[in-house]
Amino acid sequence: MKAGPVTSSYAVIRWTTSAPSNSQIEYGRTIAYGGLTPLDAALVATHRVTLADLVPGARYHYRAKSRDAAGNLVVSRDSTFTTAAAPPGGVEAQLVIWTEIVKATLTGTTLLKTAGCDGCESTAVSQQMIASGNGYLEIVDRNTNKDARIGLMRSGKSVSAVNIDYAIDPCVNGTISVRELGRYRTETTCRAGDKFLVAVENGAVNYYKNGAVIYRSRVAPVYHWSWRCRS
Length: 231
Hints:
By secondary structure, the protein is mostly beta strands. 0% of the residues lie in helices and 56% in strands.
């Protein structure tokens, strides 16, 4: 079992089993754990689970749990990793504050479509905005197999899937796609717990999966940007 990559806010845990099994991680700041990732029911021999929303510069305990088709449960020994220090300047991720919610209900930080026909859009807009410099939108995929789109859109436009300038369509049937103004750019595989970023970096927009670049946009950003969600 191995932890890596490990950043200031997330860690990817990898392990293997002798028989195809499901995947889950217990984790926490002490040996008592206290945290439990959603169960990934896919039966695989090579496992990967992402732990998100971690504290920078902190030591974490973790152990893997896998159960095969016959019901045999395997629990690993306790292991530890330490997250990286916070980025220079103390910049930390913020939970999105959703506004302008249409045909959806907000519970805590979770948006759920609650009105409109199948195929009709429900939308929301973030209170936060990237007015200059660098910034990013971070998505931890829950693999709900629901059609949706989330990304960065210039302020002043009507909220619609085809108007989101830099977007990700979350995991459906094991695939996520990158789209810009509705146009397909690329796709990659996905699993519950994968972390995706749409990042404005030094005058360019890059898309990441678990810390690795999956697409570099050819369209330079023009500020101001806010988060848009469509489902």
